[in-house]
Design brief:
heterodimer, A: about 325 residues, B: Rossmann fold, about 20% strand, ABC_Ni/Peptide_Import (chain B), membrane (chain B), ATP binding (chain B)
């Protein structure tokens, strides 16, 4: 297991990342054209009212002071009020976040379940007909945009065959396995294609390595050679890829959740953008950044657990 | 020295390779890596297998254990304890690999699994081939590491390969290979990647372990110096075929194949500083471009017309010396005759 010192140092590295993200979000919002006070105020507000709003929002303070307030408020969980929902941003996000997290994890699990066995199957038959067929099929999956795959699944499995609901969100964990099957599948088809290719390539490389030959020369059973020596080594790079793909996956939920009418933060982001709900956009961007950072942290921890050479912090 | 050879000659052969042919690539136009190699190994013998890169030495070792992948084809007979290894299934080979015949590799840096502690890499061998309980396996692993000269063996079981130096990793690899007390060790250039001082230590270790366990060794190397230092017999390979074989001292004293002569001549001995080193002119032929006659003919100073057209047939003469050459150097027997 990775040492406590390693975990602590890796955790501390997140702090500057978050600060940088906050600087970007803060500056980005202030770079947008238009006066936030006008956006906040009712139509036909007087100059007097606008000035009051500016004063109340601290918009007259120097930028550095404003940033200080922004950091302080963010850390204490105050992300402002959503213009669209007329409720605190943090409350709205927390309500919708579990849906997206569920959908993402579901998609990742499906991708791994599809990609890992096929990659192993293809890699042990490298350049044979089965390998070429599998790679060709996934190449097609890779070339199609997620929303298109989503629409095809929706039409065929949802509307025509009526195997799965065409949208919405269920009530319980089990119920959602069924309700979110189509959106998860449409994300997973794309992710698993990338994962399959990467995993297959590293499996081929590991299968050819000297330590696997040595393991075979020891007379170990094939099952142990494949799991203990081959798969584990190939996983190190696959885990990296999976971690990096979370960023893609999060932006993918914007489209997928909209296509399948899933009430997650992806769809919320799209709604917020269309409504120019700046506090909500700001809060959601921060949320996505936090999720991606935490995923990278988890990736690093899993990797250092897999590979002892990475444990020296 | 002489006594030992007579002694060895009287012992029965444990491994008998007959006409081993390993090829790759398309059936109709195969790339032949090992071409009709025959070799016999006696119990307790250390046999050097010498040749340049690409001469087929490593493929020979891998063919013995059936490690050739993915599409290598192994023909001929590899007789081990009355069984033909070339005809065994993967399952049957699994019981022999690591248990009766073990192998160590050239690169200690890449031959150990970087993600597993060395203790596990030793004990998994014992788990596969013995009925020892976990605690016994660990005790045995400590004893093995201790035997190959790893200081503080018990404390190092949980260490990972990257925490060992190159020479120490090679010792760990030897400990792993010897875990189940094999009767034959296939050593594929075990010292090539190591410093000269470490090379010597590892060779001595192999020698003493072979004597202690009564184990035969096939030592693949490209270094005639290594052969001279520790091998009872030597076989010289070129272009996938055997050129010459015999007791090491005899072959070194009177090489008969022009290639063996060239190899021995390439070792710098007592030359003045800044003297250009000798090397055999030309390069070995690639797998797909072997000449129809003797593989060495294009580079051979003694080559005749027949050498270019006809493969030389290996013959065995008195004193256990084998030779495949149309126009050999005069041997000691001819001179005395």
């Amino acid at each position: 297991m990775p040492s406590a010192a390693y975990l602590l140092s890796r955790l501390l590295q997140i702090v500057p990342t978050f600060l940088l993200v906050m600087v970007f979000i803060f500056l980005f919002v202030r770079l947008l054209p238009g006066d936030p006070a006008i956006a906040m105020a009712e139509a036909k507000a007087s100059d007097q009212q606008l000035a009051e709003i500016r004063e109340r929002m601290g918009l007259n303070e120097p930028l550095a002071v404003q940033f200080g307030y922004f950091v302080k408020n963010t850390v204490t969980g105050d992300l402002g009020r959503s213009i669209l929902m007329k409720r605190p941003v943090a409350e709205v996000i927390l309500e919708r976040l579990p849906v997206t997290v569920y959908l993402s994890l579901y998609a990742v699990a499906l991708s791994v379940l599809v990609a890992a066995p096929l990659a192993l199957f293809a890699a042990t038959r490298a350049n044979g007909p089965a390998d070429i067929a599998i790679r060709g099929l996934f190449q097609v999956g890779l070339s199609m945009p997620v929303f298109y795959i989503g629409l095809v699944l929706l039409t065929v499995l949802g509307a025509k065959l009526r195997l799965f609901p065409v949208g919405g969100y269920g009530r319980s964990f089990i119920d959602n396995l069924y309700h979110l099957a189509l959106p998860a599948l449409s994300i997973a088809l794309y992710t698993s294609a990338i994962l399959m290719r990467n995993l297959r390539a590293s499996l081929v490389e590991v299968l050819d390595s000297e330590f696997v030959q040595f393991a075979r020369a020891k007379g170990l059973p094939r099952r142990i050679v494949l799991t203990r020596h081959v798969l584990r080594n190939a996983l190190v790079s696959a885990v990296t890829l999976l971690g990096l793909s979370i960023g893609n996956l999060m932006s993918g939920t914007l489209v997928t959740e909209t296509v399948f009418a899933v009430p997650g933060v992806g769809r919320l982001m799209l709604e917020a953008i269309f409504a120019r709900d700046y506090p909500l956009i700001q809060g959601l961007t921060l949320t996505f950044a936090v999720i991606v950072s935490l995923t990278f942290l988890a990736t690093d921890i899993v990797q250092s657990w897999l590979d002892p050479r990475l444990r020296q912090a | 020295m002489l006594d030992r050879h007579i002694d060895a000659a009287a012992r029965p052969a444990v491994l008998e390779i007959r006409n081993l042919t390993t090829s790759f690539g398309p059936q109709e136009r195969p790339l032949v890596a090992v071409d009709g190699l025959s070799l016999s190994l006696k119990a307790g013998e250390i046999h050097g297998l010498v040749g340049e890169s690409g001469s087929g030495k490593s493929i020979t070792l891998r063919s013995i254990l059936g490690l050739i992948q993915p599409r290598g084809r192994v023909g001929g007979e590899i007789l081990w304890k009355g069984r033909n290894l070339a005809a065994l299934s993967e399952r049957e080979l699994g019981a022999i690999r690591g248990k009766e015949i073990a192998m160590i590799f050239q690169e200690p840096m890449t031959s150990l699994n970087p993600l597993l502690p060395v203790g596990l890499q030793i004990t998994e061998n014992l788990a596969a081939h013995t009925g020892l309980a976990r605690a016994e396996r660990e005790r045995e692993a400590v004893a093995l590491l201790d035997r190959v000269g790893i200081p503080g063996a018990r404390a190092r079981l949980a260490d990972f390969p990257h925490e060992f130096s190159g020479g120490m990793r090679q010792r760990v690899m030897i400990a792993i290979a010897l875990a189940s007390r094999p009767q034959l060790l296939l050593a594929d250039e075990p010292t090539t990647a190591l410093d000269v001082t470490i090379q010597d230590q590892i060779l001595r270790l192999l020698q003493s372990l072979a004597a202690e366990f009564g184990m035969s060794v096939i030592l693949v190397t490209h270094d005639m110096g290594v052969v001279a230092a520790c091998c009872d017999r030597v076989s010289v390979m070129y272009g996938g075929r055997l050129c010459e074989s015999g007791p090491t001292a005899d072959v070194i004293a009177a090489p008969r194949h022009p290639y063996t002569r060239g190899l021995l001549h390439s070792i710098p001995r007592g030359v003045a500083p800044r003297t250009p080193l000798y090397s055999i002119p030309g390069v070995p032929p690639g797998l797909g471009e072997r000449p129809p006659g003797c593989a060495f003919a294009p580079r051979c100073p003694n080559a005749l017309d027949v050498c270019r057209d006809e493969k030389p047939v290996p013959s065995v003469s008195a004193g256990g010396r084998g030779l495949a050459c149309h126009n050999p150097e005069p041997g000691p027997t001819e001179e005395t005759r």
